[in-house]
Amino acid sequence: MREIVKLGLILLLITSAAAVVLGLSNAATIGTIEAVEAKASEVARKEVLPEAENFKTLEEEKLNEILNGNEKVLEVYAGYKGENIVGYAIKTATPGYGGNVEVITGISTEGKITGIKVVKHQETPGLGANATSAEFQNQYKDMNTSKEITVVKTQPSNENEIQALTGATITSDAVTNGVNIARELFNNKLSK
């Protein structure tokens, strides 16, 4: 009986020490992780709205109104060329197959989607993870924001349709839902 208690205490000490080490390493790296994610988001904003030279968050009051109205909207940036706004980069998160799919959508002031980028996901490798491919993401480019975008399993026959990823319709829907949220936000709050 004493051996079992002794082994249990040793195991408790080892797991406690491991938990402390993991906690300390997480605390030590959290700033670096956030900085890397912020840099990746900045690069993605430039990819989806290439005409913009720099990005600024919206005025605090307007940003709070948008973020409080929709928990699926994570960030909204205005893209500037000189002093003029050329468009917006909107980051959304919608549920996919393996978890939330975060998408940054670029929309020009003329109401055209300038690009999208899947920046974070937990989708199945080889299936849903293919949402990060340029071939899939380029389907959204130059679409008008006036019409809702839909996902089809066959070759698109209308200008507001994109072809789903083979074997990953849920992921295709998640990306499209994120783009549609950005599109609606632009139409209802930003284009006015």
TrEMBL record:
The molecular function GO annotations come to: electron transfer activity; FMN binding
Q: Which domain of life is it from?
A: Bacteria
List the cofactors: FMN
What range(s) does the FMN-binding domain occupy?
A: 96-186
User: What would be one Gene Ontology cellular-component term for the protein?
Assistant: plasma membrane
InterPro entries reported for this sequence: FMN-bd (IPR007329), Ion_transpt_RnfG/RsxG (IPR010209)
Primary localisation category: membrane
Subcellular location field: Cell membrane
Which residues does the record list as FMN phosphoryl threonine (modified residue)? 169
Q: Which UniProt keywords apply?
A: Cell membrane, Electron transport, Flavoprotein, FMN, Membrane, Phosphoprotein, Translocase, Transmembrane, Transmembrane helix, Transport
Q: What is its EC number?
A: 7.-.-.-
Instruction: Reply yes or no: does the keyword Magnesium apply.
Output: no
- Provide the topology term for how it sits in the membrane: Single-pass membrane protein
Which Pfam families does the annotation name? Answer: FMN_bind (PF04205)
Q: Name a single GO biological process.
A: electron transport chain
| The keyword Metal-binding is assigned to this record | no
Relate the protein's function as given in its record.
Answer: Part of a membrane-bound complex that couples electron transfer with translocation of ions across the membrane.
Q: Share what the entry says about its subunit structure, partners included.
A: The complex is composed of six subunits: RnfA, RnfB, RnfC, RnfD, RnfE and RnfG.
Q: Which HAMAP family does the UniProt entry name for this protein?
A: RsxG_RnfG
Q: Which PANTHER family does this one have?
A: ION-TRANSLOCATING OXIDOREDUCTASE COMPLEX SUBUNIT G (PTHR36118:SF1)
Q: Which family does it belong to?
A: Belongs to the RnfG family.
Q: In its UniProt entry, what is this protein called? A: Ion-translocating oxidoreductase complex subunit G
Q: Which organism is it from?
A: Thermohalobacter berrensis
